[in-house]
Design brief:
Number of helices of chain A: 6
Oligomer: heterodimer
Distance between the termini of chain B: 33 Å
Structural class of chain B: alpha/beta
Largest sheet of chain B: 8 strands, mixed
Structural class of chain A: mainly alpha
Order of helices and strands of chain A: EEHHHHHHE
Radius of gyration of chain A: 19 Å
Strand content of chain B: 15-25%
Helix content of chain A: 40-55%
Helix content of chain B: 10-25%
């Protein structure tokens, strides 16, 4: 499969296409705007703090791969419709665009969107888009090299049978131990 | 793959031909080659060399494009394989794809296959338990099927022979219903398994919770070093092929062992069309093979032929081996070939939580969980169904990660999971009763890419199985309650037969040629130089994981074949 980034930058003056394509995947193309939106959404879901967030770990790349290759047709179609409708729905609820909101406004906006929507309803696809992005972001983040080496170290070769050990109430848990 | 001169019968002749390189075929290859027989092993799939053709074995989770998940296309194209727990991104290349090898389901049957060197031995769950006479005597005591022509004493030394080479971990529990083997050190029960053991053994005499017995090396020995195999490293990634040879498969063990004798010829992409029977000599003389890629046909000849193609394919080959002497398939004088297929009933799963042991935890990467041998109807018939079930019982401390919310709160939760309750999960492995109506046959019209009739499968559960599932739920609920477990949940996953990957029978052993196909040495009653020692030979299924018994039967039959050949 092709994963083409910024290919149309070669033709800066080209205005035949109303939207610049950022990625050509197997099942669909992603415009630059959509790519930017997803990166911002992923980074809103799992933001940068003293440890890297989903955006700086490039989790949006993983989300696109999973949406393209691992969703069934119905869910993928719904996801892409939700992607289309996301910003206008966000604007309806918050009064501003997603990409011009601050980090805390974006989180509050997502909360408001989730609470304001009912399924089945006209906003069902937007809800699907948010939920799937969130679930793939969590998967990609918790199974990223950074998370599995720096935060929750995974050992490929434990070398011994896991035995019951004594734990204390406030110990830091390694999910990959 | 060696190129044979197909014009020369001499080059095509061997002392023994073994059809299949999986669990039992690998053992036939080892036994024959060790004893000096020039042996041809025919593998219908591609070559998978130990540690060379394990592409995912050293990959970290984040190196998988889909983090272990199947692509939508893979799932859509393979509804059958996708139901199998090993059909995931890390082992997808070792499982047969639905469309490449179709079969006909008269009733739903998930046929899971591995066409490659080592077959399904690459993928197995590695549990090994010996049968006891409670199992061998089952059909005659309970009046179903036919009596086994052998008893535990016939197989005992062969179990040991296999165990010492394979490497079996286990505890010597001294149970009459599950004889001890020649064990390597056990994998200890974890603290919740030990808690459950105590509760069960105190309150339910005759029921036991024991360390899992399985093909993992837990102590270095010379015999393993000679195979180039070392100790299990508890990676719990066996299905990828193990770089340490820590679990047993043909690829790391029996096949290279046979090869280093110089007596092995291993041919891949060799689809066996039929066994050739010579009406004048009154015996089988060889096999007809079709190259999977070129579709060219070749004949190979040998004095003795072992059919170890896996239960269903062994039935298929014999049914397709028609001659004027055997118009209904090789050895099939009584019309019972392909009938009395049985399997294991894995439908019942019961889970629960335990709120104690809050100061203990254990990770999920245990290669073998604990085991409860069959206790039902052991000494006498005590329920309204025949036979019983064993169970695999796994326990671990839950780790809970709150994934609600967005932003900093969500991230904080992803970085700070919390311990939850302990969870325990038991899965039944029920004996099913072989019935004539559970059968496989050659499809009258449909052919595969090599012109061989498709296998048509007609296998189903019966009332006995349904009753057993209910009893499993009742008995385990009671045992869970005694152990103080809460939130007990029983699930019947309604899986189709086949997904247990323990299909057996169709060419069953027995004393009487009128009611069975194979004699006590696994020879066809009416064609004694053909042996069947894979799952197809099984007269009943018991509740043990079957591979160890296939291997022991194979080694025993090889010994018999060698002795017979010396007589003549």
């Amino acid at each position: 499969m092709g994963l083409l980034s910024g290919s149309l930058i070669l033709f800066p003056g080209c205005d035949l296409s109303p939207e610049k394509v950022s990625r050509i995947l197997n099942d669909f193309e992603v415009t630059e705007k959509q790519d930017t939106l997803l990166k911002l959404l992923v980074d809103t879901l799992i933001p940068e703090t003293e440890v890297p967030g989903a955006g700086s770990l490039g989790i949006q790349d993983f989300v696109w791969i999973m949406v393209d290759e691992c969703l069934d047709k119905d869910r993928q179609t719904s996801y892409l419709k939700g992607l289309q409708g996301f910003n206008s729905n966000y604007r309806e609820i918050t009064g501003s665009d997603f990409d011009s909101s601050g980090p805390s406004e974006r989180v509050a906006g997502l909360d408001a969107m989730i609470k304001g929507m009912e399924r089945p309803g006209s906003k069902e696809h937007v809800l699907t888009f948010i939920e799937i992005t969130k679930s793939f972001s969590i998967l990609g983040y918790t199974q990223s090299k950074y998370y599995m080496t720096e935060l929750m170290p995974y050992t490929l070769i434990p070398g011994k049978n896991p035995e019951c050990r004594i734990v204390s109430a406030n110990e830091k848990i390694n999910v990959n131990a | 793959m060696p190129n044979f001169n197909i014009d020369s019968n001499e080059k095509q002749s061997f002392d023994a031909i073994v059809i299949g390189s999986g669990m039992s075929g690998g053992w036939a290859a080892k036994e024959f080659c060790e004893k000096g027989l020039k042996t041809l092993v025919l593998e219908r799939g591609r070559e998978v060399r130990h540690n060379v053709d394990y592409p995912t074995t050293n990959m970290n989770p984040w190196e998988f494009r889909h983090r272990g998940r199947l692509t939508e296309e893979m799932r859509r194209e393979n509804p059958i394989a996708s139901r199998c727990y090993v059909f995931r991104e890390d082992a997808v290349h070792f499982v047969v794809k639905d469309k490449e090898h179709p079969y006909v389901q008269e009733k739903p049957f998930d046929w899971i296959r591995g066409y490659q060197t080592g077959g399904k031995s690459l993928l197995w769950a590695r549990r090994t338990q010996r049968w006891s006479d409670y199992d061998f005597e089952g059909p005659s005591r309970d009046g179903f099927g036919v009596d086994w022509p052998i008893r535990y004493r016939d197989l005992e030394k062969w179990y040991g022979h296999v165990e010492r080479f394979v490497g079996i971990t286990g505890n010597r529990d001294g149970l009459a219903n599950l004889p001890d083997g020649d064990f390597l050190p056990p994998i200890e029960l974890n603290c919740l398994e030990a808690h459950f053991k105590e509760a069960v053994e105190k309150n339910f005499p005759g029921r036991n919770v024991i360390s899992g017995r399985g093909a993992h090396i837990t102590e270095n020995r010379e015999i393993f070093a000679q195979q180039g195999r070392g100790q299990c490293q508890y990676r719990n990634l066996c299905q990828r092929g193990c770089p340490f040879g820590g679990y047993f498969n043909s690829n790391s063990s029996t096949i290279p062992w046979a090869a280093k004798t110089g007596n092995l010829t291993l041919v891949h992409d060799a689809v066996v069309e039929s066994v050739i029977y010579d009406d004048k000599k009154n015996k089988a003389t060889g096999v007809r093979v079709i190259d999977a890629n070129t579709k060219q046909s070749t004949e190979y000849f040998a004095k003795v032929i072992f059919v170890n193609a896996s239960t269903m394919n062994t039935n298929l080959i014999l049914m397709n081996s028609k001659s004027s002497r055997f118009p209904e398939g090789l050895g099939n004088d009584n019309g019972l070939l392909g009938k009395f297929i049985a399997f294991h009933n894995y439908r019942g799963v019961i889970s629960a939580e335990f709120e104690g042991l809050k100061d203990r935890a254990v990770s999920f990467r245990q290669p073998l969980a604990s085991y409860m041998p069959r206790f039902r109807n052991l000494e006498r018939q005590e329920t309204d169904f025949l036979r019983g079930y064993a169970a695999e019982i796994a326990a671990a401390r839950m780790i809970e990660m709150d994934t609600s919310g967005f932003g900093a709160e969500l991230k904080e939760n992803l970085l700070n999971p919390e311990y939850g309750n302990w969870i325990v999960r038991a899965q039944m492995m029920g004996e099913t009763i072989p019935k004539e109506s559970n059968r496989v046959s050659l499809h009258p019209v449909e052919r595969d890419s090599w012109g061989i009739p498709l296998l048509s499968v007609n296998v189903d559960y019966d009332e006995n199985d349904e009753k057993m599932i209910l009893d499993f739920a009742d008995q385990f609920s009671e045992m869970y309650e005694k152990a103080g477990f809460v939130n007990i949940k029983m699930e019947d996953d309604k899986r189709a037969p086949g997904l247990d990957i323990h299909e057996m029978g169709g060419v069953r052993m027995g004393n009487d040629p009128k009611t069975s196909l194979l004699n006590r040495w696994n020879q066809l009653h009416s064609c004694e130089n053909v042996y069947v020692t894979d799952g197809a030979c099984m007269t009943s299924t018991a509740t043990q994981n079957p591979s160890l018994t296939y291997m022991a039967l194979t080694a025993r039959a090889c010994d018999h074949a060698i002795k017979e050949s010396k007589k003549s």
